[in-house]
Amino acid sequence: MFSKRSIRTSFLIQLIFSSVTLIIIFSSLLYFYIEKSIYDDKKTELVQYAKNISNYKSVFQADEAIPENFFSLNVSIIYLKHPTNQMDVYEKTDKKHTRLTLIYPFNLDNKSYLKITKDITQTKKLLRKIQKYIFIINIAGVLLVIIYAITLSKMLVMPIQTLTKKLANMNEHLMKEIQVEKLPKEFEPLGETLNHLISRIQNFVKYQKELFIGTAHELKTPLAVIKLKNQVTLIKKRSPQEYIEAIQTTNKTVDEMNIIVSNILNIGRQEGAQLDKPVEVDVITFLKQKANDFKLLAENEGKELCMNFEIDGFMATLQVSLLNQIIQNFLQNALKFTPKEKAVTLRCSQDDFGLLIEVIDEGCGIDDTVDLFAPFKRQGNKSGVGLGLFLAKSAADALGAKINITNRDDGIDGAIASLQLNSKLSCIIPINK
Question: How far apart are CA 145 and CA 26, in angstroms?
Fold first, then answer.
């Protein structure tokens, strides 16, 4: 608890120090105020005595009651060599008594002054008692502040300790999301971030297992084909042309295996790209450049690529390579499954989450019962390894974005691949009109 790097220790020290300082300043001001008030009363009392003597030749007026401490009062007339119109008050303490003396002008013609002395020993004792009680109250206040600071700091770090215990008891097989609604409001963003991280870990573990199993299966099949083809070829002597055909079949199978290995290497590169430093980029400008690149490819295949951007600009801080991987996969799949003389549309709009990017094709659509983002999941009769959408999903998770693929609901066959960028890490550029 008392580690130098502990937030709780720092909080305790600052709270106790500030509270003790405040208590000392307040109690000191209180004591000086009490002391000054008492001395002002005593001084006013002596001045009133002096005025009564000067005006009425008596210590008290006729309607005034004689106080109990009257006999501690000593009045005399003195003469000064250097007369002044100002009165003077001073305090003098001997071994047992403390006296307050007032020098008050009485008759300036003969340089006479009233010297009124009052014994304030009891007042000094009272002030010492007040000082003692204030000191005791300060000690009690400091102890209460320490207890309160320890309790408050414990209460503040309790949600973090609860989160730590929950995370410490988790493993890749037993991971549950944190119930954010049970956390204090200040810790809700932390809980949501941890839930997002837990979700990513769950998907990573799930897809990694499928990836390993799928990789083994995908590589095992072409290896078996190569082995079987070679065994059949070696059973008897064949013509040179037959050997050439066998080698060509083997090379074709090796090329398919190379594609699988390249895609697996891309997964490793993508995980490295997730650690790249995010940069600020205009997503709309990036999409326009990407669309122009694929427009030529679409025209070459007898297809059309349309663009529909509802906003002029959208600045975001992200890894451009991850965004590029997602958009490129969307456009490649859309063009692959869209027949000739049909169109693919790249559309951007703003929603409550942030920027919505959609790639709409006119292909055969998707099977809603299949998890297309799992590794080695293929759709339709087109060639491919089945790792593109898996990589796109991993990239979207790293960007804190949402990715989805649905069938079109406007009466036209085809699918809609969508990506939603979070507006918390981005901003909209105003449209210039």
Answer: 15
Rounded to whole angstroms, how far apart are CA atoms 58 and 46? 13
DSSP-assigned letter for residue 61: -
Instruction: Map residue 344 onto helix, strand or coil.
Output: strand
The secondary structure of residue 339, as a DSSP letter, is P
Contact 339, 394 (CB under 8 A): no
3-class DSSP state of 288 = helix
The answer to whether residues 351 and 420 touch, using CB atoms and an 8 Å cutoff, is yes
pTM: 0.49
Domains of the chain: 7-144 (no CATH), 202-273 (1.10.287), 279-429 (3.30.565.10)
Q: How many CB atoms lie within 10 A of CB 274?
A: 14
Q: DSSP string of 82-132?
A: S--S--EEEEEE-SS-EEEEEEEEEETTTTEEEEEEEE-HHHHHHHHHHHH
Map tokens 């002391």 to a residue: 35
Per-residue pLDDT of the chain (433 residues; tens, 9 = 90+): 445 567 778 888 888 889 889 999 999 999 999 999 998 988 888 888 888 887 766 655 545 554 545 557 788 888 877 777 788 888 888 878 888 898 888 887 778 888 888 888 888 899 999 999 999 999 998 899 889 888 888 887 777 777 777 777 666 566 677 777 777 777 777 777 777 777 777 766 766 666 666 666 666 767 777 787 778 777 777 778 877 887 887 887 787 777 777 766 666 665 555 556 778 888 889 999 888 888 888 888 889 999 888 888 888 888 888 888 889 889 988 888 888 888 999 999 888 788 899 999 988 888 877 777 776 666 655 555 567 787 788 788 878 888 999 998 888 888 999 999 876 655 544 444 4
* d(C-alpha 88, C-alpha 82), whole Å: 14
User: Which alpha helices (H) appear in 114-236, and where do they start and end?
Assistant: 121-168, 188-234
Report yes or no: 394 and 267 within 8 Å, Cβ to Cβ.
Answer: yes
At a CB cut-off of 8 Å and minimum separation 6, what does 59 contact? 49, 52, 53, 70, 73, 75
Under a CB-based contact definition with an 8 Å cutoff, are residues 263 and 387 in contact? yes
Asked if 380 and 370 count as a contact pair (C-beta separation under 8 A), the reply is no
- Please give the Cα distance from 116 to 78 (Å, whole number): 10
Q: Extract the tokens encoding 319.
A: 């890894």
Backbone angles phi, psi at 414, to 5 degrees: 145, 180
**60: phi then psi, degrees, rounded to nearest 5:** -120, 150
CA torsion 179-181-183-189 (nearest 10°) is 90
